[in-house]
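Curious: why this fold?
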Amino acid sequence: MTAPRRSPPAFREAIRLARVPLYPFAELERRAAEQERPGRPVLKFAIGDPDLPPPEALTRALAEILRSDPTSHGYSTSRGEPTLREAVARFLRVRFGVPIDPEREVAILVGSKEGLSGLPRALLGPGEAVAVPDPGYPAYVAAALLNDLAVERLPLRPGGGWLPDWEGLSARVGLAYLNYPNNPTGQVARLPDLKEAVDWAHDHGSALAFDNAYSEITYGSEPAPSILEVPGAREVAVEFHSLSKTFGIPGWRVGFAVGNPDLLRLLVRLKSQSDSGAATPLQRAAVAALGLYRGRERPPEVARAVATYGERIRALAAGLEALGLEVVPPQGALYVWQRVRSGGAALAERLLDRAGILVTPGSAFGRGGEEYVRWSVTRPLSEIETALRRLPAALSPRRGGGDGAPAVGTPPEPPPGTGSGGSRSSSPRRRARPATRRSPG
């Protein structure tokens, strides 16, 4: 006699996971794959995934470690390899002039996203809230919701250089995220701006998570600062850095956190329960990358990469402006922030459907981004030029009620890469910076 067939169990997602929107970049990649077709590959400008090779010193160091260091294949520690923590402390000293204790004030991360996501879990509990920049990196909101915390918007004001407006945050906020050079707007904060954040944290007994992933990618003569340069910041702040953007190694997943030793102790304690540290050989090789720095100036290997990104940004911004489109002139990071008064989500859909161009709708970064789209410049200049050639047809209305796509029979373009080169006190008055610029006519 055979046993009756049993129905498989029905698994449902947890309530906390159901509250978190789909990660926008994963969804964009899925949609791009659906739009691929012969003769017109999708041009992907949605994700800030560095495409330039890492410094040769870094890859040589990794090869040598794998070849000759048999101890590199074991577990690391939750706080990270001592040699890398010492290299981080040296980097903070020579680059920012900030003294750091490598034993108490440094933690190595499996990418900075791990630390940014873990800190609210280690620090806050029921009834507390996290303040997230709007517009801002979507992982900040997810970190709060996945840990059953409330989310409060920290608006970034277009007319004030995309700096935060600290008014209106409630007494529940125990942690505020801040990110400069900023993703998605490309703006850079200066020390007086960061002092305002530190003062707010002291006044309200809150912690600051300062995401400095793009500290080395700026396009002016003045380098981006560390929040730890502000007096009193070490008492309230942890600063997060990523080797992904600076050295072109996003797949390595190596980052670090520096700052308040009590906050780092909590983060390391959480890490001890959830991971065994970043891969040991990658940590040891990262020492060579940070060792390229001899002072505040970028080493030649990093400077060349930044120059390439800057060339791409100038070409893309000029091309968009030539079409009469508005852009926010970026001061740093890897993005062009384009204003779309009719709505960024609609334009992103149109560009993908009509022209095979994938950009990120600004609404993915919050309510403050609804009138924008974000272009990443981690694609070759030839692809930027191809996208600019496709844009006019995508932007113009189709004759006879159509949607402006190229006519059937249009010759396929050459493959990418083959073309040419509680009550709150009033905030101090902020410096006004141009929010957007528009081409004449």
About this structure: Confidence is low (pLDDT under 50) at residues 399-441. Residues 56-290 form a domain with the Aspartate Aminotransferase; domain 2 fold (CATH 3.40.640.10). The chain has two domains: 21-50+300-398, 56-290. The first strand starts at residue 43 and ends at 44.
